[in-house]
UniProtKB/TrEMBL annotation:
<keyword id="KW-0963">Cytoplasm</keyword>
<feature type="region of interest" description="Disordered">
    <location>
        <begin position="401"/>
        <end position="432"/>
    </location>
</feature>
<feature type="binding site">
    <location>
        <position position="54"/>
    </location>
    <ligand>
        <name>[4Fe-4S] cluster 1</name>
    </ligand>
</feature>
<dbReference type="InterPro" id="IPR005839">
    <property type="entry name" value="Methylthiotransferase"/>
</dbReference>
<feature type="binding site">
    <location>
        <position position="157"/>
    </location>
    <ligand>
        <name>[4Fe-4S] cluster 2</name>
    </ligand>
</feature>
<dbReference type="GO" id="GO:0006400">
    <property type="term" value="P:tRNA modification"/>
</dbReference>
<feature type="binding site">
    <location>
        <position position="150"/>
    </location>
    <ligand>
        <name>[4Fe-4S] cluster 2</name>
    </ligand>
</feature>
<feature type="compositionally biased region" description="Basic and acidic residues">
    <location>
        <begin position="406"/>
        <end position="432"/>
    </location>
</feature>
<feature type="binding site">
    <location>
        <position position="83"/>
    </location>
    <ligand>
        <name>[4Fe-4S] cluster 1</name>
    </ligand>
</feature>
<dbReference type="InterPro" id="IPR012340">
    <property type="entry name" value="NA-bd_OB-fold"/>
</dbReference>
<dbReference type="InterPro" id="IPR002792">
    <property type="entry name" value="TRAM_dom"/>
</dbReference>
<keyword id="KW-0479">Metal-binding</keyword>
<keyword id="KW-0687">Ribonucleoprotein</keyword>
<dbReference type="InterPro" id="IPR013848">
    <property type="entry name" value="Methylthiotransferase_N"/>
</dbReference>
<dbReference type="Pfam" id="PF00919">
    <property type="entry name" value="UPF0004"/>
</dbReference>
<dbReference type="InterPro" id="IPR020612">
    <property type="entry name" value="Methylthiotransferase_CS"/>
</dbReference>
<keyword id="KW-0689">Ribosomal protein</keyword>
Length: 471
């Protein structure tokens, strides 16, 4: 008789917050999987629920507390981890029955809490670490964290006090992880850290030997070049996307890699403001550089480059004049993608002590003005892509509705035609990072699957998205 395997305990996971928190969740799940756990897609089937929280803004904290409350009500056996884990008293005061609270990056502590809450059943047949770990993101794209912490002390940010100073991972270890991800089906690597351009500073940009021979320097440009040389099992070059890059002078040296196609022509630079006065009081890094001139030079060298950024409006002391400076700057910079935030004081941030807070209604009005301007710029930029053929990475494909449920499309004569023409898919261009940028919606996308690279003829555009057909 075949051996009946005992069923392993099941863990539910709720992951809140930024992509960096998502990477932490993935690491925790990898460890739990290695310890013989299964994942539960719902509260009911979970022996224990892990909530990975975000504590960056007060609103994020509230969202984290709500998620914990929901997990407590639905399941009752809850372990909390992540940034808000630094405020264990707040969590325990509200949810005295919580099983454990651990802070960010305390992987061992989280795993131990789960081991205690739902002890694993030893299983000689199943206890193997899967090659690639268990991932929350779709298999075709993966976040690659290259460092933790940050050496800056921006006035509105509490990340350094939570995560500490910059601690870069060794470049050979990052490359090994990237190779495994790509071998396991990743088509796009999203390089993340608090400050990507500072990568390697703490390692003094030392060189490390590579298994394949040669060596690699702990430096953003060198790492990006090596990542760009990876090949998928199908022989494609995976997309390498750089996030959270500050415009230090050496950023100029990754632009040629973009022009060569080794790294996506995409830069996510959180400028946060443009007014020198506000940038100074924000204590932002690299704000002295002549950014507009640099952007123009990057575009000259790599015309395809898409620049994404985020901005804070209503920072203490921001006058109408400072704000107008930002709008004029945005008009000139013509950034491809822009996110805006209304300033929110975070407990423990230096900015809270600054004078001249901006009234809420003024913040709101400025926020609307930034969004209107940047939506208009985005719409114009996307409209210019109509008629062009672009590369797209497919994220999801529409399910075919069975004939009885197919919507009535009277304009198609043959029932099969309605079916056929309905097949669509959604993907992203090189200018679109998952979840934060736009999408490309395809019609007549037969035979495609998530993770496919496809050429698309752009037929239409709106403020954020493109619409097209496989070329
Ligand atoms: S660069 Fe500034 S905003 Fe970014 S993590 Fe460091 S301190 Fe925070």
């Amino acid at each position: 008789m075949a051996t009946k395997l005992p069923s392993p305990p099941r863990v539910g996971m709720v992951s809140l917050g930024c992509p960096k928190a998502l990477v932490d969740s993935e690491r925790i799940l990898t460890k739990l999987r290695a310890n013989g756990y299964d994942m539960s897609p719902d509260y009911a089937g979970a022996d224990v629920v892990l909530v990975n929280t975000c504590g960056f803004l007060d609103s994020a904290k509230e969202e984290s507390l709500e998620a914990i409350g929901e997990a407590m009500a639905e399941n009752g056996r809850v372990v909390v981890t992540g940034c808000m884990g630094n405020e264990a008293e707040v969590i325990r005061a509200r949810f005295p029955d919580i099983l454990a609270v651990t802070g960010p990056q305390q992987y061992e502590a989280v795993v131990n809490a789960v081991l205690e809450a739902a002890p694993p059943v030893p299983n000689a047949y199943l206890d193997l670490v899967p090659e690639q770990g268990l991932k929350l993101t779709p298999r075709h794209y993966s976040y690659l964290k290259i460092s933790e912490g940050c050496n800056h002390r921006c006035a509105f940010c509490i990340i350094p006090s939570i995560r500490g100073d910059l601690a870069s991972r060794r470049p050979d270890a990052i490359l090994r992880e990237a190779e495994k991800l790509v071998a396991a089906g990743t088509k796009e690597l999203l390089v993340i850290s608090q400050d990507t351009s500072a990568y390697g500073v703490d390692l003094k940009f030392a060189s490390y030997p590579l298994k394949s021979g040669g060596e690699v320097r702990a430096h953003m440009t060198d790492l990006a070049r090596e990542l760009g040389r990876l090949k998928t099992p199908e022989g494609d070059t995976p997309w390498v996307r750089l996030h959270y890059v500050y415009p230090y002078p050496h950023v100029d040296s990754v632009i040629p890699l973009m022009a060569e196609g080794l790294v996506l022509p995409y830069l996510d630079i959180p400028f946060q403001h443009a007014s020198p006065k506000i940038l100074k009081s924000m204590r932002r890094p690299a704000n002295e550089a002549k950014v507009l001139e640099r952007i123009a030079a990057w575009r000259l060298e790599c015309p395809e480059i898409a620049i994404r950024s985020s901005f804070v409006v209503g920072f203490p002391g921001e006058t109408e004049e400072d704000f107008q400076y930002l709008l004029d700057w945005l008009q000139e910079a013509q950034l491809d993608r822009v996110g805006a935030f209304r300033f929110e004081p975070v407990e423990g941030a230096a900015a809270n002590a600054l004078p001249d807070p901006v009234p809420e209604e003024v913040k709101e009005e400025r926020y609307q003005r930034v969004m209107e301007l940047t939506a208009r710029i985005s719409a114009e930029k996307l409209a210019a892509k109509v008629g062009k053929t672009i590369d797209v990475l497919i994220d999801r494909v529409d399910e075919l509705a069975p004939p009885s449920e197919a919507p009535d499309r009277g304009h198609f004569d043959a029932p099969h035609a309605a079916h056929h023409h309905d097949v669509g898919a959604t993907g992203r261009s090189k200018a679109d990072a998952p979840e934060i940028d736009g999408e490309v919606h395809l019609r007549d996308a037969h035979g495609l699957k998530p993770g496919d690279f496809v050429k698309v003829l752009v037929e239409e555009a709106d403020e954020h998205d493109l619409y097209g057909v496989p070329a």
